[in-house]
Amino acid sequence: MNISNSFIIASANQKGGVGKTTTTINLAQALALQKQRILVVDLDPQANATQGMGINLEAVKYSVADLIRERSLSTELALHQGEGIDLIPSSPLFWPLNEYCI
Ligand SMILES: Nc1ncnc2c1ncn2[C@@H]1O[C@H](COP(=O)(O)OP(=O)(O)O)[C@@H](O)[C@H]1O
Ligand SMILES: [Mg+2]
Questions:
Q1: 90 lines ligand 1 (CB under 6 A)
Q2: Where are any strands of DSSP class E within 38-93?
Q3: Could you tell me the residue range of the domain that residue 52 belongs to?
Q4: pLDDT tens-digit profile of 51-89?
Q5: How many domains does the chain have?
Q6: How confident is the model at residue 28 (pLDDT cuts 50, 70, 90)?
Q7: Which residues surround ligand 2, an ion (CB under 5 A)?
């Protein structure tokens, strides 16, 4: 895969209920329909995007929090592959990680 053509879209706002999750899931789907390859990285401990993409949180063995906490872990461990949209899930079990994010 040629990552030089890749770009990152961040959906971030400290305020809740402003449409971050909804925008993320729908934008990912819209871009996937245009044959873009998508990786959604759910960095919200509420894990709504993870659940909204059909992942049962009890089935999440490795989350994005594990990748942040243990940098030697392979990203592949947390990767959920889908039809044009891959996901690095979040999980409420593995937060807070504020000390790792400074
Ligand atoms: N463009 C929109 N128009 C109307 N309602 C929306 C829109 N985007 C999101 N919502 C609704 O607003 C609420 C909060 O959206 P959500 O994506 O969960 O916000 P956040 O992730 O920022 O907390 C949900 O009920 C969602 O259905
Ligand atoms: Mg949300």
A1: no
A2: 38-41, 85-88
A3: 3-100
A4: 999 999 999 999 999 998 898 999 999 999 998 999 999
A5: 1
A6: very high
A7: 20-21, 48
